[in-house]
């Protein structure tokens, strides 16, 4: 008699679990349940529609440094399925990945549809059934699992893999908590910083290749590309900072201050020494026309205005007061943050099922045999750059392999 697997969630982790379990055990009946009317929605929007599949990091010790939560758990799990396994899995199905300068990996087509088509093709090939608009409201564990839906319909299964993603509110985990599992309260991760009314938003679209950002009153700081938007700041430097500070920033109700160093290779002391040389070397030139730090011109002009420097002022005539203001604004410009904005549609949560309740070798619940977890529903989240998808592929694969071997 065929055994059945129900995968709750039609995202990356859910699909990867379903298609691999069905492939590894042809006698297993596999069904994916998706609560919305869209499949693989995060895959679709990831990387600006290109899908940041993983990151070109081949050292587990280095890779786990990219996960603010769950690094110890993944250190063990990655031994089962890691970056090179992800690359090989897609390559075997005709999807080759390329590596960009920052380490992010995308399909050579630069289209997320390539990844979606690959996963859908696997689902069709191995007869994985997909049911849309199926929102699970209750899961009962007995000899078989019983899943009850909003319309009071019921399904039974021998195995269940929860891969429903991260819920933004704790109450949305209630049906899972009734299965005796503890949940770490969810808070947003990977979000941009809002600066309502700040004049820097007039520079929307300006990007700086490398800036350093620090949360005032904390040890949190990150460096990397920074993008000025019409609502505040975004870009990898901000997103990484939001991930590492997810819980700390939630406690402030997203009201805090940051210090930005626009030229992180210099600090205030070293910049002051450099300024003395610039005043001599560029003496006759107008400051506004000679930007010696490689900053975007619009940002340079903004910083001069913020420092009270007149457009006609020459380097030789720069007063000490205005020079000190410019040094401060270049190396430690302070901005008040009031609120956050979700990064496009790539919503990620910090929180989920406690990791000490999951066996990293199988992704099976330690409380209920036959119940598995994969992806963002567990208390693991990474910074931007393909790390959250690698968690999805890894945990989905481990669950699939265990289920297929036991079915």
Structure in words:
The chain is of the alpha+beta class and 407 residues long. It folds into 2 domains: 3-188 and 349-406, 3-Layer(bba) Sandwich (FAD/NAD(P)-binding domain); 191-342, Helicase, Ruva Protein, domain 3 (Orthogonal Bundle), CATH 1.10.8. Helices cover 32% and strands 25% of the residues. It is built from 13 helices and 22 strands. It has helices at residues 12-24, 41-49, 60-63, 71-77, 83-91, 112-125, 174-177, 236-244, 246-251, 268-281, 297-306, 320-332, 387-406; strands at 3-8, 28-33, 54-55, 97-99, 104-107, 129-131, 136-141, 145-149, 154-157, 159-162, 183-189, 191-194, 207-215, 221-228, 232-234, 255-261, 333-338, 340-342, 348-353, 358-359, 364-365, 371-373. The strands form 6 sheets. Strands 17-16-13-14-15-12-18 form a 7-stranded antiparallel sheet. The longest helix is centred in the last third of the chain and has 20 residues, at 387-406.
What topology does this entry show?
Blueprint: E1 3-8, H1 12-24, E2 28-33, H2 41-49, E3 54-55, H3 60-63, H4 71-77, H5 83-91, E4 97-99, E5 104-107, H6 112-125, E6 129-131, E7 136-141, E8 145-149, E9 154-157, E10 159-162, H7 174-177, E11 183-189, E12 191-194, E13 207-215, E14 221-228, E15 232-234, H8 236-244, H9 246-251, E16 255-261, H10 268-281, H11 297-306, H12 320-332, E17 333-338, E18 340-342, E19 348-353, E20 358-359, E21 364-365, E22 371-373, H13 387-406
Helix pairs in contact: 1-6, 1-13, 2-6, 10-12
